[in-house]
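Hi all, posting the design record for the shared folder.

TITLE: backbone redesign
STEP: 1 of 1
STRUCTURE INPUT:
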């Protein structure tokens, strides 16, 4: 038993929804496309799970956050897929793939063949069992990666109002889940091995702003250590968390956010892997010309910085998916993927955005006491990254523009004093690309890399001199007339 499709998307996350939307925009025929997903629902906007879904009142629920509402586009409900003739194969696990024969074998024994495959398998949350932690299978230990995880977390939280929670991990999931737990009136202790939260992205100075805010909400941070084991009660639930430094924390629930791992297992030994993901070119095409990879699972050329990276963020999932489909459907017009790294978060009344790269020296600006904190990263004399808490749409667009232009920075002290005005001043410089900054979850494709900042300045000087010479020549001619 088997089915055949022209295009198959393996994975049912954010990237799958945006890829499907792009295929329809390119006019695929009904019956050409199939999406295979282990989840039981059509693709949805995953960021909602750590934000609106966890609210105690007015919580977000499907179908309100199906893709592609995160980009201000149409909501792709199951009916939409049916109307477009797209086959949704849900609650289905693929246990084997053969890229030479262009087939996928499901756990139910069905063979699905394709002409072109898009791998959008994303990543899975790392589980404590993988680290040999005693008691890691307790009922009240929660993770957050998919809808089922979120439903369990909501259920456990509802039984722990006024109780104690321990959050393991100080990254994205740890910090956003902590905010949700506090909002649900749960007392939280956060444990992580680093010296400050969000260590992969933030400097200690930036982290301290957020840690202080969380502390004012009653959150306790324990840094520089990791958990060692759990103590369980007679009902198979965690009663306490034991840390490696000897600390014992009583707990009524635990949330774990210690990272993710790309789902590449089906393709190991068949496709080239790099940076923990499937290596692709600027068209998102893998080492097999019939196979593309997008989102968290793709290790792609980051054109702006000249290296290969694997990025774990919804913005990249959306844009890489659309880019792959464009390359498949209109290869003669396809450009190389030119992505500007972008990250954001919203917790409590706080909201920040980051663009570019966090390498080199960090130059802080703003006034944290009024909730306006910003930073630039300067590497080898160029601005390469920009961060802002509490910005407006115009200000965030200016940061994105600055990170993409990579303007020269001669004096970091002056840059700190100029702060946001430095980025805003770049709006006066012409940019040849079709550029739209991303604000929260309103993202669009960056279609073309702009000219470098020095080149723009040089071009402006040439044009100005030319205008002066023409004016001089014209005035001389008029005197002759």
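Okay, here is what came back for every position:
SEQUENCE:
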């Amino acid at each position: 038993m088997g089915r055949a499709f022209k295009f198959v998307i393996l994975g049912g996350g954010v990237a799958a929804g945006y890829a499907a939307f792009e295929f329809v925009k390119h006019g695929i025929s009904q019956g050409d496309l199939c999406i295979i997903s282990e989840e039981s629902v059509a693709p949805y906007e995953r960021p909602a799970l750590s934000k609106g879904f966890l609210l105690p009142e007015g919580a977000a629920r499907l179908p309100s956050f199906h893709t592609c509402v995160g980009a201000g586009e149409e909501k792709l409900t199951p009916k939409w897929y049916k109307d477009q003739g797209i086959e949704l194969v849900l609650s289905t696990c693929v246990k084997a793939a053969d890229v030479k024969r262009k087939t996928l074998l499901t756990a139910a024994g069905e063979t699905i063949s394709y002409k072109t495959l898009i791998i959008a398998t994303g990543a899975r949350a790392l589980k404590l069992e993988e680290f040999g932690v005693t008691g890691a299978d307790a009922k009240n230990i929660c993770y957050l990666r998919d809808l089922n995880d979120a439903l369990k977390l909501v259920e456990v939280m509802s039984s722990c109002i006024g109780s104690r929670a321990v959050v393991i991990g100080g990254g994205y999931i740890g910090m956003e889940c902590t905010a949700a737990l506090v909002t649900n009136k749960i007392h939280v202790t956060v444990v992580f091995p680093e010296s400050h939260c969000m260590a992969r992205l933030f400097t200690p100075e930036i982290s301290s702003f957020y840690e202080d805010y969380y502390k004012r909400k009653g959150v306790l941070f324990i840094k520089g250590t990791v958990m060692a084991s759990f103590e369980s009660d007679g009902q198979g639930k965690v009663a306490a968390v034991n840390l490696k430094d000897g600390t014992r924390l009583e707990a009524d629930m635990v949330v774990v956010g210690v990272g993710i791992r790309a789902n590449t297992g089906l393709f190991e030994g068949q496709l080239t892997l790099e940076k923990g993901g499937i290596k692709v070119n600027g068209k998102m095409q893998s080492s097999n010309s019939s196979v593309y990879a997008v989102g968290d699972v793709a290790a792609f050329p980051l054109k702006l910085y000249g290296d290969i990276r694997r990025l774990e963020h919804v913005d990249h999932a959306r844009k890489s998916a659309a880019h792959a489909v464009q390359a498949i459907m209109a290869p003669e017009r396809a450009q190389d993927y030119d992505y500007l790294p972008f990250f954001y978060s919203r917790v409590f009344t706080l909201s920040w955005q980051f663009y570019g790269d966090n390498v080199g020296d960090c130059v802080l600006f703003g006034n944290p006491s009024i909730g306006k904190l910003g930073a630039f990263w300067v590497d080898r004399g160029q601005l390469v990254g920009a961060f802002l808490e509490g910005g407006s749409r115009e200000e965030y667009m200016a940061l994105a523009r600055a990170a993409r232009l990579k303007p020269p920075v001669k004096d970091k002290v002056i840059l700190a004093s100029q702060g946001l005005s430095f980025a805003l001043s770049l709006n006066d410089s012409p940019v040849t690309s079709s550029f739209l900054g991303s604000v929260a979850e309103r993202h669009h494709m960056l279609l073309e890399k702009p000219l470098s900042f020095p080149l723009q300045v040089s071009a402006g000087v040439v044009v100005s001199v030319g205008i002066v010479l023409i004016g001089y020549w014209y005035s001389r001619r008029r005197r002759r007339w």
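COMMENT: The longest helix spans residues 453-480.
Let me know if anyone wants the other runs.
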